[in-house]
Amino acid sequence: MKKIIILFFLAFITSALVAQDLTQGLWYNEKKSAKVQFYQQGDKLFGKIVWLKDPLLNGKPKVDKSNPDATLATKPLLGLVFMKGFSKTEKNIWEEGTIYDPENGKTYQCKITIISPTQLDVRGFIGFSIMGRTSHFTKAD
To answer: Most exposed of 31, 33, 51, 88 (fewest Cβ within 10 Å)?
Structure first.
């Protein structure tokens, strides 16, 4: 009986850690070239770039040069909200959002899965989730 109680307690603690709040702390992208801060507006989740490993290009702030909208192509990457409109659909899953890739100027449907307290899987796709690419974000602090 004692072992069952201990196992139940460990399972509860583990699930509580995995179900953490994404808005707490900063996350590195897969390349560790940027840190992302998640925040909520109402029941939607958003992510913005708050740190860049190399924030300057030729002595000036890096801009969103690949953006197809010319008025946005001169905006700095630092502070860019590139993940938008996610809804929590399951305990550890945020879906129905989009992710913008500043490297190619394209926006994709996206799903965020909390794998552990220190890892997120961010899957960008077109149409169906099976036709996409997953990036692994890691806790930065």
So the answer is: 31
Fill in the amino acid letter for 11.
A
Per-residue pLDDT at 131: 85
Separation between Cα atoms, residue 18 and residue 23, nearest integer Å: 13
**CATH architecture of the domain covering 21-139:** Beta Barrel (2.40)
* Other CB atoms within 10 Å distance of the CB of residue 32: 11
pTM score: 0.83
Question: Which tokens is 93 given?
Answer: 């899953």
Beta strands at 119-125 and 132-139: parallel, antiparallel or unpaired: antiparallel
Q: Is there a contact between 128 and 83 (Cβ–Cβ < 8 Å)?
A: no
- DSSP for 38-94 reads EEEETTEEEEEEEEESS-EETTEE-B-TT-SSTTTTTSBSTT-EEEEEEEEEETTEE
Tokens of 111: 């799903």
Which DSSP category does 96 fall into? E
Q: Report the candidate in 40, 24, 9 with the shortest Cα–Cα distance to residue 118.
A: 24
